[in-house]
Design goal:
Elements: E1 2-7, H1 11-26, E2 30-31, E3 38-43, H2 45-54, E4 63-68, E5 78-79, H3 83-91, E6 97-109, E7 116-120, E8 123-127, E9 133-139, E10 142-155, H4 163-166, E11 179-186, E12 199-201, E13 207-211, E14 217-220, E15 223-226, E16 230-245, H5 252-260
Parallel strand pairs: 1-2, 1-3, 3-4, 4-5
Antiparallel strand pairs: 6-7, 6-16, 8-10, 8-14, 9-10, 9-13, 10-11, 11-12, 13-16, 14-15
Bound molecules: NADP nicotinamide-adenine-dinucleotide phosphate and manganese (II) ion.
Subcellular location: Cytoplasm
Function: Involved in the regulation of the intracellular balance of NAD and NADP, and is a key enzyme in the biosynthesis of NADP. Catalyzes specifically the phosphorylation on 2'-hydroxyl of the adenosine moiety of NAD to yield NADP.
Protein name: NAD kinase
């Protein structure tokens, strides 16, 4: 099996990486950063997010494994003190995997006739800082609302526990192939009206934003794009998915409970 390790710069992650490298070499794994079959990310959810973007051209042939250094994450199944168990699981690997939906972001810029595509694991936001963002929102090609406010966030199911959750969006079970739109401070009064609640969009539907004016900030996960005038953005569920090597069962709602509520007994 060809394995790559993708660690963040933190001291702890670097130590875990060293230990894991030693174990993998002892067990005669092939280390291959260019064309790995399994990518082991060491750090937090943010590290897995950058590992995903680093290898996003090879999603069909890669399975990810997340090791967390620090608090429990959503893309990380393994604690840093479980390296030996992880290596045992890798040795007896028989291709087990679980996959999750990704967000396809298609952007039409004013300076180019063709669309630019970005792939998102968590979410993509459109924002404006300089003055109120005004954007027409279409669902399935039909006009839905004229949004005024700070911005809009479109998230994947696995991204629903990230920025989306801070915006009051729902936590979505990742077995569901849906997208969610959450508002960032919409203006609502007698003149301006938006739905004002998060929306869950069906698998075959698509979302279009037609922003008015310029100076928009587009984010895709940890990346920010600004400077070019955007005329339209399309969001739909991508044909691509992210695959994780699945060696143990994780109950999604328990993970949510552990991350946000804490282990408090019901006595
Ligand atoms: P960051 O500022 O270090 O990340 C913000 C927090 O989001 C970190 O605690 C990160 O966990 C956590 N996170 C990332 N993906 C998550 C997920 N799918 N479910 C639950 N928590 C998640 O920046 P980053 O590490 O590069 O992560 C980028 C992400 O930050 C963006 O995709 C966005 O979702 C999130 N973000 C959130 C807000 C907000 O809540 N107001 C604002 C901007 C961006 P780790 O510490 O484990 O990395
Ligand atoms: Mn982070």
């Amino acid at each position: 099996m060809r394995v790559a390790i993708y660690a963040n710069d933190g001291k702890k992650s670097q130590n875990v990486k060293k230990k894991l490298l030693t174990r993998l070499k002892e067990r005669h794994f092939a280390l291959d950063d260019l064309h790995p079959e399994v990518v082991i990310s060491i750090g937090g959810d943010g590290t897995l997010l950058s590992a995903f973007h680093h290898y996003q051209a090879q999603l069909d042939t890669i399975r990810f494994v997340g090791v967390h250094t620090g608090h429990l994450g959503f893309y990380t199944d393994w604690r840093d003190d479980e390296i030996d168990d992880l290596v045992i699981s890798l040795e007896s690997d028989n291709g087990q995997s679980v996959s999750y939906p990704l967000l396809d972001v298609g952007v039409k810029y004013a300076d180019s006739p063709s669309k630019v595509h970005y792939l998102s694991l968590n979410e993509s936001t459109l924002k404006r800082i300089s003055s109120t963002m005004v954007t027409d929102v279409y669902l399935g090609g039909e006009f839905f609302e004229r949004f005024r406010g700070d911005g809009l966030c479109v998230s994947t199911p696995t991204g629903s526990t990230a920025y989306n959750k801070s915006l009051g969006g729902a936590v979505v079970h990742p077995d569901l192939e849906v997208l969610q739109i959450a508002e960032i401070s919409s203006i609502n009064n007698r003149v301006f009206r938006t739905l004002s609640s998060p929306m869950i969009i069906a698998p075959n539907d698509w979302i279009t934003f037609k922003p008015h004016g310029s100076n928009f900030i587009l984010t895709v996960d940890s990346e920010t794009y600004q400077g070019r005038t955007i005329t339209e953005i399309y969001y739909k569920i991508s044909k691509k998915r992210i695959h994780f090597a699945k060696y143990r069962h994780n109950h999604f709602w328990l993970r949510v409970q552990e991350a946000f509520i804490g282990i408090e007994n019901e006595d």
